[in-house]
Amino acid sequence: TGVKIAGLYTTSILAKSEALAAGYDEAILLNQDGSVSEGSGENLFMVRDGVISTPSETDNCLLGITRDSVIQLAKNELNMDVVQRHIHRSELYLADEVFLTGTAAHLTSVGELDNRMIGTGTTGAVTKQLQDLYFSTVVGDNDRYVNWCTFVTPSSG
After folding, report:
1. Cα separation of 25 and 16, whole Å?
2. Which domains does the chain have, with CATH numbers?
């Protein structure tokens, strides 16, 4: 039996497989212009000099719910600028922090990229603040964003 694989996920699956085979945990995808697009299943953010940047909508990144949530939390709770723009791969090497967001990744820091340490190589202060805010929000502990949650009552059976 023949198998056909098609769709937008194919590139991400192949990129992730290639990264794992090379000893890395994740792949960063570039768009047709060579700008950063996203991870294999996550959105990408970088922090440099107190400004958070993420690829713009025109960089072929998925406009994820987690991405939007993190942008809102950064602006509203940390009073930080979040700039959506083209990001060159080399900018990531000079970033103070890089993190990925997504349904499965939640908010995960990147310690190293292409064998180059990012910042201190550990979770940075901005990433940690956003992780704490995000997790308190998604479990319903942040009253300002309780409308983001749908509470489910466990079944008795």
Report:
1. 8
2. 9-145 (3.20.10.10)
